[in-house]
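Sequence in, structure out.
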Amino acid sequence: MSTAVARFRREGYGSTLVGVLIVALFLFPVFWMVSTSLKAPADIFATPPDLIPSPPSAEAYREAVFGNPIVLRAMVSSVVVSLGTMLLTILLAAPAAYALARLELPGGPLVLLLLLITQLLPSIVMAGPLFVVFSRLGLVNSYQALILADTTITLPFAVIILRPFFLSVPKDLESAALVDGATRWRSFVQVTLPLVRPGLVTVAAFSFLFAWGEFVFALSLNTNEGIQPVTVALNKLIGQYGTQWNSLMAISTAVAVPIVAVFAGLQKFIVGGLTSGATKE
């Protein structure tokens, strides 16, 4: 018995078992969400609860997702806001991170400190001032307001992540481009940016993820149902006198699919980008 236990520890099976249990614990809510979405309304409150629906029913998807024009329009709005936030974040964060990494700007450390402090501010604190500003600019109830509001959260994170990547690029490469007649901007676009591609992919994925799941700005800066994101549409399924659980879970599953697809497809870049950016300083 002692030999078997020693081998069990030596081979690392114990750590693997603990890891599997932790992953199963975290994934169980996702499993329960998908399982509930495939149940008939009468089976949701069955006692004891059924872990696996038998038989599975796709009625909630047909009615609440594909047959609901409000949800479909809300998902389109979420795509527009998420892609807009992602593109605007990259366009602003890449030059800003490059400037902090390469140019000896006065007050550069202070700027980094302010970026870190903004990460501590919750969205609800910023929603009020942003509503006042956007109201005066006539941007309330528009995609522009939602994209700009989401960018205020994603931009500091993106700059902090990208700066170590720019620091890791050898200055000799940029100097060679400048000697060959390239401008600073052309050297940045054609030489430096391709070398920090993992960082750009990481920032793009996380910016898209945040904007896709953002709720506070979507609720406070928009009252137009025509452009409301899917997070607000989900909230309407939770009523004072009851919750449509199978419809809620069906829409939640449909909303989670794009996020899972993005991270599954870009997993190598995201993990590599986060670990590389953490050590290149």
